[in-house]
Amino acid sequence: MRLRKAARVILVGAPGVGKGTQSERLLGKFPQLTAISSGDLLRNNVKNRTPLGIKVESTMKSGGLVPDDMILRLITNELGQRGWLSGGRSNVMTLSSSAVGVAEAYEDPDPFIAAIDRNPAAGATLSAQASDDPTASFLLDGFPRTAPQAEKLDDIVPINWAVSIKTPFDVIMQRISSRWVHEPSGRVYNTSFNAPKVHGIDDVTGEPLVQRADDNEEIYRARFRKFQETSEPLLEHYAKKGVLWEVEGMSSDEISPKLFAEFQRRFG
């Protein structure tokens, strides 16, 4: 299916609700969507030793949180390189960029560079060409997580579909308590619906699986409360803009068809 207009999407949901699963399924069902992950952007810049990556690495090693402005700068750079923004510079690094020339790109004496250090938007706005171009469709992961972050992002690129995924607390708790992980690869199993062939053993390597230290009820309840505190203002922000859509289900398989149908209705 071809899209008739650009989709700029975020998924919001409590830890363990299945955002990752729904993201993968959306991207598989609608290949026009591009995945843009703030976490991947951070890791890519750190790996390639860009000036921004060096700053990020220093912050993370000291145990600090990466400032919103720094993440916004990464997102601005990525969208600008793709030609989806106006007012930004063109010689910046994207997820697909090689390390060759990265430092030169960041050190180019462009006045926009100095401006973006003070203000990640720095006059960058969604370009007229990209505003409804289906090729400028993306699913943004990891940002925004709070209403203030969403307000800052609005100045650069307005999200036009915010999806709130809801599953009952006790169902999520059961899902989390049944989760086993192969730490070296990140492969995740669940004894309820995606069990390994041999209990406690990774299907691919034969190595042992482990349960994460934070996959227990006490820790999860604290994470859930924190999510509620930050997500309610975020969802209210998008509700006021008329782009919030809520979907409920007991499982990912129940939610996915609803998600696909609404996506097609809005953008197909």
UniProtKB/TrEMBL annotation:
Its EC number is 2.7.4.10. CDD domains: ADK (cd01428). Keywords: GTP-binding, Kinase, Mitochondrion, Nucleotide-binding, Transferase. GTP binds at G16, V17, G18, K19, G20, T21, R179, V188, Y189, S252. GO terms for molecular function: AMP kinase activity; ATP binding; GTP binding; nucleoside triphosphate adenylate kinase activity. GO terms for biological process: ADP biosynthetic process; AMP metabolic process; GTP metabolic process; ITP metabolic process. It catalyses: a ribonucleoside 5'-triphosphate + AMP = a ribonucleoside 5'-diphosphate + ADP. One of its GO terms (cellular component) is mitochondrial matrix. Residues 178-215 are annotated as: LID. PROSITE patterns: ADENYLATE_KINASE. Residues 37-66 are annotated as: NMPbind. AMP binds at S38, R43, G64, L65, V66, G142, F143, P144, R145, Q149, R212, R223. It is found in: Mitochondrion matrix. Consists of three domains, a large central CORE domain and two small peripheral domains, NMPbind and LID, which undergo movements during catalysis. The LID domain closes over the site of phosphoryl transfer upon GTP binding. Assembling and dissambling the active center during each catalytic cycle provides an effective means to prevent GTP hydrolysis. Belongs to the adenylate kinase family. AK3 subfamily. Involved in maintaining the homeostasis of cellular nucleotides by catalyzing the interconversion of nucleoside phosphates. Has GTP:AMP phosphotransferase and ITP:AMP phosphotransferase activities. Monomer. This is GTP:AMP phosphotransferase, mitochondrial. It comes from Neoarthrinium moseri.
